[in-house]
Design a protein that fits this description.
The protein is mostly helical and about 270 residues long. It has two domains: about 140 residues; about 110 residues. The protein has ten helices and no strands. Helix 2 crosses helix 5 and helix 7 packs antiparallel against helix 8. It starts with 9 loop residues before the first helix and ends with a helix. The mean pLDDT is about 85.
Length: about 270
């Protein structure tokens, strides 16, 4: 079963987009941005006559950082990847896009200096300008990916309904005082609801969502083959498993429920 606590993967960073779409974003947005710059032989722009332009660019840079954070949270909260519903992950991703924009801006500046055979001589105003342009660049990269690289799931309401059925089945099992042998229908209902959730998650554009769908499918397949007494131990909060296999299935079930809560509590 997949690791719920893994670090930010490339797929998570790209919100499920392909690496070539990131490259396309860097090239297209870079060309667009450079077209607006007044590049001179001494640096990015003629700083002696455009100080107000620098102040305006710095303001846009700060706004771009804020928009990068907002867009990152908006995309993450609409995804089916549990990792993208963690604040720490979203902050890392937002910082990553800003850093990527700054890095690409620095590369463009160094390439410009090499082509003109001018050593890079930076002052504080040029550094502020470069950081601002880089922040804008980072936001434009994220904006391109959000518009052209991500397929937002269209079955959110269906997923919510399926998860609600899972919770209702789990609650009914926890509150029942009947013997497990008399709860066959409830166990079957839980398995069916879990299958419905898995089918919804397969529309995810991220690895995290698809892995969760696969984990649920594998769990249901094993769970459905167990007798009622074993099923009771796996899903009842008041019961404790006494075997390695049942303990693993119980842990898997709790992990699945935790991840489902993660991706649906923000809706």
């Amino acid at each position: 079963m997949s690791d719920f606590k893994r670090s930010v993967s490339p797929s998570t960073f790209l919100f499920g987009a392909l690496p070539r779409q990131l490259l396309t974003a860097v090239v297209l947005e870079g060309i667009t941005l450079i077209g607006f710059l007044q590049v001179t032989s001494t640096g990015f722009i003629d700083l002696d006559v455009t100080r107000n332009y620098i102040i305006g660019t710095a303001t846009l840079g700060v706004v771009s950082v804020g928009l990068t954070i907002i867009y990152t949270y908006s995309i993450g909260r609409s995804s089916y990847s549990p990792a993208l519903h963690k604040n720490r992950t979203l902050v890392i991703i937002a910082a990553g896009y800003t850093a990527l924009g700054i890095l690409m801006t620095a590369v463009a500046f160094l390439a410009h200096s090499v082509l003109l055979e001018q050593p890079p001589i930076l002052n504080s105003e040029e550094i502020v300008f470069g950081l601002s342009i880089g922040s804008i660049f980072g936001f434009l990269i994220l904006l391109y990916i959000s518009r052209f690289g991500i397929d937002t799931p269209k079955n959110t309401e269906e997923l919510q309904a399926a998860v609600s059925e899972v919770r209702q089945s789990q609650s009914a099992l926890d509150s029942s005082i009947k013997a497990p042998i008399h709860l066959t229908k409830l166990y079957g209902s839980l398995g069916k609801s879990m299958e419905d959730v898995s089918n919804c998650l397969r529309q995810s554009s991220t690895d995290g969502g698809r892995e969760l769908a696969q984990d649920i499918e594998e769990w249901v397949e094993v769970f459905s083959e167990k007798p009622e007494i074993s099923q009771a131990v796996i899903v009842h909060r008041s019961r404790s498993p006494d075997g390695e296999e049942l303990t693993e299935l119980r842990n898997d079930f709790q992990s699945i429920i935790a991840r489902l809560n993660k991706i649906t509590k923000d809706e």
